Amino acid sequence: xxxxxxxxxxxxxxxxxxxxxxxxxxxxxxxxxxxxxxxxxxxxxxxxxxxxxxxxxxxxxxxxxxxxxxxxxxxxxxxxxxxxxxxxxxxxxxxxxxxxxxxxxxxxxxxxxxxxxxxxxxxxxxxxxxxxxxxxxxxxxxxxxxxxxxxxxxxxxxxxxxxxxxxxxxxxxxxxxxxxxxxxxxxxxxxxxxxxxxxxxxxxxxxxxxxxxxxxxxxxxxxxxxxxxxxxxxxxxxxxx
Length: 241
Description:
This protein is mainly α. Helix content is 72%, strand content 0%. The protein is globular. Residues 1-9 have low confidence and may be disordered.
């Protein structure tokens, strides 16, 4: 462990804080760009520096290291979401992801669990595939996939989606089914299940709350569709995981 001289009562020196600040800024820039390699590089360096001063950081809340870590991750969640939105993540998607991780952080019970959530959080905010596309050469299906990615939990009709994509609803449904082999509704529900699985693993929300959060208005249908996809009910999946 490095020696940090002339530190304050928490053992933090100006040099240490400047190092952490620079690493965090580089990490946030990588998230904004959606550059996975850049993020991986600075994430590793930042973790190394934080580990060397872990005792001080996790003692911010006396006798409660988990609470201290939660407070840190909640502030990082805000920073990461802001950087991702600057890099093209839609306002709705930014809000959804930020809320999701805030819930997961609060429901975590151990440092190891918070470590996994933090890693997942950085990965998701960096993912370029969920950003707004800047290409004008996308096919109708690609535009529909992007639209669903950014609005999957919203109760949007096929007519509204088609209007946003400037195509006729029947044409959109026909082309999508032909290329993907499934309907738009089924595709959107699969995306919702993907999100639900993460919430089931990392939160203590009820299945009804999770169903509503990811876009299912009917919790029974959510459970039925989940079992069709995963082979087990949401409750069984939670026990299994």
